[in-house]
Amino acid sequence: MKDINIGGRLVGLSHPPFIIAEMSGNHNQSLDRAMALVDAAAKAGVHALKLQTASPDGLTLNVDSPDFLINDPSSPWHGRNLYKLYKEAVTPWEWHKPIFDRCARLGLIVFSSPFEPAAIDLLEELNAPCYKIASFELVDLPLVRKAASTGKPLIMSTGMATVSDIEDAVNAARSEGNDKIILLKCTSNYPSTAKDANIATIPHLQQMFGLQVGLSDHTLGIGVPCAAAALGATVIEKHFTLRRSDGGVDASFSLEPAEFCALVEESERAWASVGNVVYGGAAVEKKSLQFRRSLYIAKDVKAGDSLTDENLRIVRPGYGLAPKNIDVLLGRKINRDLSIGTAMKWEFIG
């Protein structure tokens, strides 16, 4: 799988995971807070900040019927009207340029999830380096095609998606001549549990589509994304907030700055730990071989004496014959005087 350049950073299996902090609606409708999130993300060492570019009218209809209410009791948005929720959560479009400018000054890659065609037009004006297709929009093939037609990398979440849904979206992007595609394993539950993450899907998706695969994660903590990094996830996306206690539409399943800092560090460690299949000791272990056990003379002996379990022992260090030879050596006579602490050699026999 080839590397993909996103905003000047190479993303691929030969690089540490590309870490994305998702602002979503955690700005709580305050531009000052949005800017504080940008600053905190840069300080935490994340590689990219992601917005959501949407409007309530581009997402749903302004209707109060039951179809437009969230009726899942376990949802953090239970009972909310879709239109009113989205009105609260969206990032105002006029905020995008100042946020993009702030990220540029801080050296932070910034892009967005467009939820309607006009959003892509806005993001093109801002020269967004890539596009993220959210799980719920994966089936919106016209939106996928429009984003793909820009020629920029496409990161597509696959929450709820069947293999057929994913194939349709990938084919839609490729129909525009765009093969710079990264899929994200995602569980579209907020928050989700580690048990529901099913990150074994990551290498399976890689093999099935021949594409890079990452993780869009809604679990608490950093354990799941670090495990995903060890399974080959090239991208990790999690929601980001200044403080969960501040509230907000996504606060309950978002990481705080110190947690994101740990995620950057620990996911890179997880990635680096995979390495290659190695037996017989890695290069860095060679100096430790001396501390293995081997056969040593344990009492002074004279030429003609027989080796016994009292004068020949398996001890550290490892400069003598291998311990596996002890049964062959016991009872054999030595051909010279040897003092205690002599590493046993074959030349001392006979």
UniProtKB/TrEMBL annotation:
GO terms for biological process: carbohydrate biosynthetic process. Residues 294-350 form the AFP-like domain. InterPro entries: AFP_Neu5c_C_sf, Aldolase_TIM, PseI-like, PseI/NeuA/B-like_N, Pseudaminic_synth_PseI, SAF, SAF_AFP_Neu5Ac, SAF_PseI/NeuA/NeuB. It is an enzyme of class 2 (transferase). The keyword DNA repair does not apply. Pfam families: NeuB (PF03102), SAF (PF08666). Its EC number is 2.5.1.56. PROSITE patterns: AFP_LIKE. The keyword Transferase applies. NCBIfam families: PseI. This is N-acetylneuraminate synthase NeuB. It comes from Reinekea forsetii. The lineage of its organism: Bacteria, Pseudomonadati, Pseudomonadota, Gammaproteobacteria, Oceanospirillales. The gene is neuB.
